[in-house]
Amino acid sequence: MLRRAILMTAAVSALGAAAFVCVVALAFALFAALAPALGSAGAAAAVAGAAVLLILLMALSALVMARPPAAKPAETGPDMAGKLFGMARDRPLFAAAAIAATAVIALKNPQITGALITAFMSPKEPKA
User: Fold this and answer.
1) Can you tell me the distance from the alpha carbon of 19 to that of 16, in angstroms, rounded to the nearest whole number?
2) DSSP 3-state assignment of 76?
3) Do 30 and 46 touch, CB atoms closer than 8 A?
């Protein structure tokens, strides 16, 4: 594992050195091509401008690659009431049985019914 990491580091370093040599050679070639027409100073300025454009292009591509993908908003399904109404619409007999069971429980235990009514009717405090 360590040997592979060392070899990968050496390969990346060699690639970087080769890219640097290529860029320097291209800069010399550009200077030699522009020197007769622009003079030494003009050719040097043109080579510097080309280097700036190259650096700008590399920075722009790095920024585009580094930007994380836009997060998709989480799709929210129907809430509990929506699910219950959907189930009642799909299975009316089941809904009728659930209503009857709730009525029986409410009639047999009025304390639970009172607690539920109190819980739903009490004013809600605003969320901070």
Assistant:
1) 5
2) coil
3) yes
End-to-end alpha carbon distance in the chain: 53
Tokens of 42: 């003009």
The model's pTM: 0.44
* 58-78: pLDDT as tens digits: 888 888 888 777 777 766 666
Contact predicate 19/54, CB 8 Å: no
Cβ 42 vs Cβ 19: under 8 Å: no
CB-count burial class (<10 Å; 0-12, 13-18, 19+) for 38? middle
Q: Are 44 and 32 in contact (CB under 8 A)?
A: no
The answer to whether residues 102 and 116 touch, using CB atoms and an 8 Å cutoff, is no
Rounded to whole angstroms, how far apart are CA atoms 29 and 41?
15
Q: Tokens standing for 96?
A: 């009728």
